[in-house]
Amino acid sequence: MSAVSAPGGRGWAGKTLLLARKDLVIEVRGRDTLPPMLVFSLAVTLLLAFTLPDTSRPSTRIVLPAGTASVADVLAGFIWVTVLFAGLVGFARSFEVERHEGAIDALLLVPLDRSGLYLAKAMTNLAFIVAVELFLFPVFAVLFPIGLGAGVVAIVLLVDVGFVAIGTLFAALAAQTRSRELMLPVLAFPVLVPVFIAAVELTSDLFLGRPTRAVVSAGWFGILLAFDLIYVVVGALTFEFVIE
Fold this sequence. Notes:
The chain is mainly α. The chain has one domain (about 10-244). Helices cover about 75% and strands about 5% of the residues. The chain has 10 helices and 2 strands. Strands 1-2 form a two-stranded antiparallel sheet. β1 and β2 form a beta hairpin. α3 runs antiparallel to α6 and α6 crosses α10 (about 220-244). The longest helix has 30 residues, at about 115-145.
């Protein structure tokens, strides 16, 4: 079977989009994934709003147990930790419908290259992550002295690509184990460390008012791009072996 065209009048892209749409329709009807992600994000945001002592300026230094950090560093760290944990909540449910209904085998019978299955799940997860960020970042911008320019949007999208690429792969692997809720973070945390360190460093610089061009020229931006590429390639090439 060709990966570009297949029987049934739909090509590779059409069937991939159809599978992604199926997952989104299930979420709209059941509301099992996105609400917990949003509630978690709101709880972390409110907790931070009441605990930070002085957030009037991004450059203000805050005393921490390990030293001092600027408000921008702390806010960037909290934002991305929130996205990380909220994302893992969503990833953990990526294959829940198929697992509960015993439909993973049926999913594998779809006349579509495994890369299409991977991309469909990744697109669904990306939609959930973006929905959380569309809520989280504006709330942070209202409560704290940060700006949300084009540079922040670009960094967010790049982080999302790497996060979703490897998170979807590990979600498929964890879904086939009994301790899937534990296995997913155990597998994902070590691999995601470079992406989220780069995210915090780049976002903090933007919150401090550094020009976008200077931030993009920084080494962390290159590291983020490199890991995005690695995770996308690894996810697409190994998903077939993981899901089967």
